[in-house]
TrEMBL record:
Protein name: Pre-peptidase C-terminal domain-containing protein
Organism: Undibacterium nitidum
SUPFAM superfamilies the record matches: Collagen-binding domain, Metalloproteases ('zincins'), catalytic domain
Keywords: Signal
Residues annotated as signal peptide: 1-25
GO terms of molecular function: metallopeptidase activity
Pfam families assigned: PPC
InterPro entries linked: MetalloPept_cat_dom_sf, Peptidase_C_arc/bac
Record bears the keyword Flavoprotein: no
Residues annotated as domain Peptidase C-terminal archaeal/bacterial: 529-597
Length: 611
């Protein structure tokens, strides 16, 4: 529900709630002040009654901390309240939590004042003045000084390059292809949504001030890549955000693009409220808009999730990374790696030797803000998809390292003397994955390994393999040591594979019988399952169909080789798992039906009918 109301004297609320007031005023900056019980505060706000953050002030004392509430969500024990200071339009007020505990801030930008709300073990809400840099870290004077010099040279930065393996294995992977940049979604259907509100920098679907649609796409793509380990939909679609906000605002966040110069900033822990971050842009400043704005947005969203800056080293409060490994924390001074060809910016828990902030960034988003990790896309291992000519392609052979320590296994068999040439590389535009790959034989003996230094890829070149069964294991890599380098803590993201295997035995085809449905099929998000049917000459058509009641399975078919999302005879890729496509006047041969799991599905029926 939405309500708009002015919050004035707390005294009336305290009297009505039966809570006694203290008899004299004290400095808010020096002493936390009691507001009352969580229930009393929530009821006061919800009923448009009065609340004043300074509970001990006597009647008639003006505190300047009255607030105007614009949004109240109180449903199923979950609470989110947003608004602003009554005496300042340039301010933010938000509380969130449950009917047992509230936390939040009142921020007055013009006067550089901030007030923190918290709840003790007895369920009593308190407020105390805090430095504004605690709540808006990017207002800190040292951060401004540290980044100004770096951003001045960003025009010469070495920007990410798309991997040739990036072929839309997920919605945010691959180069711009004329998508509507106001309708982008990284994980369609997820109830967790973060909205990049680009309204103020767009004229309809066209960016203002000469910024290209591709750069808008890449700004979104950077944020989507750095949060791809979570089941959260990074979107530019207002309708998607509004629907998610109506369902449960505590699963949503928003940052507003602003069409002017300024220092981007975001309120600490404002995810779950309508209190937005602010992302200024300056397309005339010379730096790459997609890369620079995307990096800044990912950093600011981190603040909204509750992360502070990563400190230490020569950067003081804002760690500048480790040049020898071209690595740094995204919550540090990420501009300092502008001239690193293979820069890697990740989440951190303060493992480097000069760290002074030991927050567990991944835990903050997952536990503190209740954003779940995505499901494991390779739980029990998969067969490496190899063509009849020994080609290993990235459209079929890819995956995601979702959590710290996750591994993905791919099995294959070699007949006779085999030779493997295989490259594995990250496929997100600005991801966090450093690839580590190992090959084991059937005795679980390590045969070969690769984790190329300061390169992010793994590669096996002319690797001779005797006949036998093998297992390729891909994991997040690490370089140096955790104290001088980086661990695999946040080495997460999507990868793709490309190469050849001579002397391989492709997995046997699952052959369908015309008109006979094959039931009980399932697939995890981002995976392919393949089926085959032999079509004699002289037939009029072959009809492919799938039917399922859950998930989003897409259907593709191709002659002779397995289809991909870009190479097919026919396809059907709607928003459900009920799809049909037809090849008319088919040439004789073996047709492959490929089912791609846009989202996970189960109990799917697959059928092909030759007419």
């Amino acid at each position: 529900m939405k309500k708009s109301m002015k919050l004035s004297s707390l005294g009336m609320m305290l009297v009505m709630a039966g809570i006694s007031q203290l008899g004299h005023a004290q400095s808010l900056a020096s002493t936390p002040r009691q507001l009352g019980s969580v229930d009393a505060v929530i009821n006061s706000l919800s009923n448009q009654q009065s609340i004043n953050p300074l509970s001990a002030r006597s009647a008639g004392t003006t505190t300047g901390l009255e607030t105007i509430v614009s949004h109240v969500h109180n449903k199923d024990g979950l609470v989110s309240i947003s608004g602003r200071a009554a005496d300042s339009n340039n301010s933010t007020f938000y509380l969130k939590g449950s009917n047992k505990s509230l936390r939040g801030y009142l921020i007055k930008h013009d006067s550089k004042q901030a007030y923190e709300y918290s709840t003790d073990a007895k369920g009593i809400v308190f407020v105390v003045e805090v430095p504004i840099a605690k709540v808006i870290p990017d207002f800190d004077a040292k951060w401004v000084a540290a980044t100004n010099a770096a951003t001045a040279t960003i025009a010469s930065a070495v920007h990410p390059v798309y991997s040739a393996f990036a072929q839309r294995q997920a919605p945010h992977i691959g180069p711009y292809n004329n998508e509507d940049v106001t309708k982008l979604e990284s994980k369609p259907g997820s109830p967790w949504v973060f909205y990049l509100n680009t309204t103020a920098v767009m004229s309809g679907s066209t960016p203002l001030n000469g910024v290209t649609k591709e750069n808008m796409y890449r700004a979104w793509q950077v944020v989507a890549s750095q949060y791809s380990m979570y089941n959260i939909n990074i979107t530019t679609n207002a309708a998607v955000y509004n629907a998610a906000k109506s369902a449960n605002i505590l699963r949503t966040g928003v940052i507003n693009f602003v069409n002017q110069d300024g220092r981007s900033n975001a309120p600490l822990s404002s995810f779950g409220t309508t209190s937005a971050g602010t992302l200024y842009r300056n397309p005339s400043s010379g730096f790459d808009y997609g890369y620079g704005i995307g990096m800044t947005a990912a950093h600011e969203v981190g603040h909204q999730m509750g992360m502070s800056h990563d400190h230490g080293g020569t950067g003081g409060e804002y760690f500048e990374g480790i040049a020898a490994y071209q690595w740094g924390p995204i919550m540090g001074n990420y501009w300092m790696g502008a001239n690193w060809a293979n820069s890697l910016w990740t989440w951190s828990k303060g493992e480097y030797n000069t760290a002074t902030n030991f927050e567990d960034d991944l835990r903050i988003t997952n536990v503190n803000e209740n954003v779940p990790f995505v499901a494991d896309d390779n739980v029990n291992g998969k067969a490496l998809v190899i063509s009849n000519t020994g080609v290993i392609g990235p459209a079929q052979n890819f995956g995601q390292i979702e959590k710290t320590g996750d591994t993905d296994a791919f099995t294959f068999t070699v007949t006779g003397n085999g030779k493997l040439d295989l490259k594995i590389e990250p496929i997100e535009y600005f991801g966090m994955l450093d690839v580590d790959a190992k090959i084991y034989n059937s005795a679980n003996t390590l045969v070969a390994s690769s984790n190329k230094g300061v390169n992010r890829t793994a590669e096996f070149v002319a690797l001779n393999l005797p006949a036998g069964s093998y297992r390729l294991v891909i994991a997040g890599g690490a370089e140096g040591t955790p104290s001088n380098g980086f661990s695999n803590y946040s080495s997460l993201g999507y990868y793709g594979m490309s190469g050849t295997l001579v002397g391989s035995t492709p997995p046997a085809d699952v052959v369908l019988t015309s008109g006979v449905a094959l039931g009980g099929q399932s697939g995890s998000a981002g995976t392919w399952n393949y089926y085959a049917i032999d079509v004699p000459s002289g037939k009029t058509s072959v009809v492919f169909s799938i039917n399922g009641a859950n998930g989003d399975a897409d259907l593709f078919s191709q002659l002779t080789v397995k289809p991909t999302a870009t190479a097919y005879k026919c396809k059907s890729d709607g928003s459900t798992s009920i799809e049909t496509c037809t090849v008319s006047a088919p040439a004789a041969g073996r047709y492959y039906l490929g089912v791609y799991a846009y989202s996970a599905y189960s109990a799917l029926t697959v059928k092909a009918t030759v007419n």
